Amino acid sequence: CSSRECRRRVVAPAERGCDNGGAFFLCRPVMLETLTRVPPDPILGVSAAFQKDESPQKVDLGVGVYKDESGKTPIPRAVKRAEQEMLAAQITKTYLSPIGNPGFNAQVAALTFGSDLAGRKSDLSLAQAPGGSGALRLGAELLLAARPGASIHVSDPTWANHVPLLGNAGLRLQKYPYYDATRNALLFDQMLAALDALPAGEIVLLHACCHHTTGQDLDATQWAAVAEVVARRRLVPFMDMAYHGLGEDLDRDAASVRLMAKAVPEVLVAVSCSKNFGIYRERTGLLAVLSAGSEPASIISGHLGRLARTLWSMPPDHGAAIVDRVLSTPELRQDWMTELRHMSNRINSLRALLADRLSEATQRDFGWIKSQRGMFSRLPLTTEQVITAREALHIYMAPYGRINVAGVSPANVEHVATGLAAVMRG
Ligand code: LMR
Fold first, then answer.
1. Is any atom of ligand 1 closer than 6 Å to the C-beta of 43?
2. Residues 419, 412 contacting (CB under 8 angstroms)
3. pLDDT (mean) for 14-36
4. 190 Cβ inside 6 Å of ligand 1
5. Are 259 and 228 spatial neighbours (Cβ–Cβ below 8 Å)?
6. Rounded distance from Cα 274 to ligand 1 centre (Å)
7. Which atom of ligand 1 is nearest to the CA of 161?
8. Angle at which helices 330-362 and 318-328 pack, to 10 degrees?
């Protein structure tokens, strides 16, 4: 190539209409070279590093997936059966619509709000989305369509991906106090005071159950106080429900959403079916929006369809069809509920095992791990200690000491407890 800019020659088909002596040249890029390398994802990067580690001692307390007694992430029996039946019965894979599978939407809404849909069936707009993350993004886009430049207040700390997921949609993120990791304590009074100081119309992201990074949930009295402030200050609750059924049980885990549905006119709920149905990679979620009557609900449904069309056109059907079949077939539903209960009981017994062993090994009180719920707890570790645990002990966890309790087992608890005790002692 005669151009001083050019790196190398690629193709030369004169017939393609080249005006440079019949040759195309690959010259210096004009745009994409402005991109710089991104750091690994704070959570998925941990999984990638774990996969590469060849130590037989390695323990994965990183990404939030359930693990059974053998360390595997199982497909629930009812899901497997529903999938087989569904594939055998399916006669077409033609398009559904931007708001997805109506059977799935109705079933998951009933699971979330209760069979009477919190008495507000005609106020509901539903859209299936690619996982809980897709539902969060769709909700953010809806809120921005309603109010460009809106702010959302998230708990400090929150799920690492909330920040880019909601922020890249255009919502301005602010934080409210939630948890003090040095004292392993909920900052409830500070949280309530912060919410009580917000102007009307501000959006508040709330973790419906199994707080997605600390495992520290509000109790029923605290939820009632939050609902009172949200209603009185005319705030808009956006509830993230990613671990339904993995805390206490399906009804108690949904109590916060049902309470809010009775307390305020407008509520958004992003539901994930990844964890409770064990269908992580099928990307199955729902955005449910409660509004002040059937007329706004029908307008919102139109917006959800249009927004989904511009984001991903239509959500993937496979996982939603499975969930619809499980929830609408009494025998499968019962079996799924039994297995889900086993999962949550098992996580809670691992909490007890870890708390006791850590308390013994450190001579400090880790009893608070037992009262938290869902997959996560946040250990009081510095960033350096998290790195030391990984490099010296092959114990992998997310930044700031977030652990997936489901990754603990009777076989590894000794290594985890004594190892982390040594790391904490420095
Ligand atoms: C997690 O927090 O580990 C899970 O929700 C998986 C994810 O996508 O981050």
1. yes
2. no
3. 63
4. no
5. no
6. 10
7. 9
8. 100
Taking the centre of ligand 1 as the mean of its atom positions, its distance from the CA of residue 138, in whole angstroms, is: 18
HSE-up of residue 264 (Cα within 13 Å, Cβ side): 28
Question: Per-residue confidence at 228, pLDDT binned at 50, 70, 90?
Answer: very high
Extract the tokens encoding 420.
Answer: 């982390």
* Cβ of 159 less than 6 Å from ligand 1: yes
In this predicted model, what pLDDT tens digit does every residue of 201-222 receive, in sequence order?
999 999 999 999 999 999 999 9
**Through-space distance between the first and last CA atoms of the chain, rounded to whole angstroms:** 60
Closest atom of ligand 1 relative to the 41 alpha carbon: 9
CA distance 426 to 422: 6
Are the CB atoms for 344 and 250 separated by under 8 Å? no
Strand partners, 203: 152, 236
- Is residue 166 within a helix (H) or strand (E), and if so which, with residue range? helix 162-167
Q: How many residues does the chain have?
A: 426
pTM (global) more than 0.85: yes
Residues 321-330 have pLDDT tens digits of 999 999 999 9
Helices marked H in 9-150 — which ranges?
Answer: 44-52, 77-89, 102-113, 131-146
CA neighbor of 260 nearest in space, from 133, 102, 131, 114:
114
Q: What letters, b where the CB count within 10 A reaches 16 and e where it falls short, cover 60-95?
A: bbbbbbbbeeeeeeeebebbebbbeebeeeeeeeee
**CA–CA separation, 183 and 156 (whole Å):** 14
Interacting residues of 288 by C-beta distance below 8 A, sequence separation 6+? 108, 109, 112, 113, 124, 125, 126, 268, 269, 271
Please give the Cα distance from 42 to 196 (Å, whole number).
32
Nearest atom in ligand 1 to 272's CA: 5
Indicate the helix (H) or strand (E) that contains 61.
strand 59-61
Render the burial of 236-255: b for 16+ CB within 10 Å, e for the rest.
bbbbbbbbbbbbbebeebbe
Question: DSSP letter at 368?
Answer: H
**Which sequence positions are flagged as catalytic?**
159, 240, 242, 275
Q: How far is CA 380 from CA 109, 176, 177, 359, 365, in A?
A: 37, 20, 17, 13, 12
